[in-house]
Amino acid sequence: MKTLTAALATAVMLAATAAGAETLRFGIDANYPPFAKQGADGKLQGFDVDISYALCTAMKVQCQIVPQDWDGLIPALNANKFDAILSSMQITDERRKAVDFSHKYYNTPARMVARIGTKVDQNAFRGKKIGTLRASTQEKFARDYWGKAGATVVSYGKAPEAFLDLTAGRVDGVFVDSVVGETDFLKRPQAKNFAFVGPSYNDPRYFGDGAGIAVKKGNTVLVQRLNKAIDQIRADGTYRKIQDRYFNFDIYGK
């Protein structure tokens, strides 16, 4: 009887523990392949999604992905719709005014995508249109660099919409993260007349120190836990396995 009682007590304790297990909710823009997109089965997939689940495993918590359009990520975080943003958000001084950040979890430059042979300097897009992702670091840079020299910067809620307008001739270039430009557009048949043009752009005044995980201001405990988890998946090989599913280079950067 004592053995049965002990077994029942253990079962009840385990059930209670499972029922009360911590869940970490990550907000992710689902329209940013290869970092996040909706698969044929309706589930989200991509580098950011896989990193989210890996971090939850390292932190021994359950993981919930909450889709959210890019320009609503920070407001939704501050409204407690989720606990953290893991959506390729660059760590910049301006964003630090609104949120706190973990360590970086990757770092890639921005590039201009345009018709092959397009000249790129500060005055090259005078009287022309450049597409960017709304509320992105690329948008801010484009407005300051090309916009002040006479270019019109057109903002989009989703990167694929900008590429659609590029192929249709409604914009003359799309300024975007280099990985997104390569995997989401330049590898596709409709991009045969387009390429990266001009240099890479990684000015830390605009693009910060790489992409980090954003949390509400003052949540230092969660920042510390995320930093520890990032270090863990980097050290145990999990990060490398995820990276190699999507890229043939070191996305973590220097």
In words, what does this structure look like?
This protein has 254 residues and is of the alpha/beta class. Helix content is 38%, strand content 26%. The strands form three sheets. The protein has a five-stranded mixed sheet. β8 (129-133), α5 (137-145) and β9 form a beta-alpha-beta unit. The longest helix is centred in the N-terminal third of the chain and has 18 residues, at 2-19.
Biggest sheet: strands side by side, in what order? 4-1-5-12-6
What's the tally of helices? 10
Q: Pick out the low-confidence regions.
A: 1-19
End-to-end Cα distance, whole Å, is: 62 Å
Mean pLDDT: 91
Domain count, please report it: 2
What is the helical fraction, as a range of percent?
25-40%
Oligomer: single chain
Task: Predict the CATH topology of the largest domain.
Answer: D-Maltodextrin-Binding Protein, domain 2
Shape: globular
Report the count of strand segments: 12
The proportion of residues in beta strands is 25-35%
Provide a brief overview of the structure.
The chain has about 250 residues and is an alpha/beta fold. It has 10 helices and 12 strands.
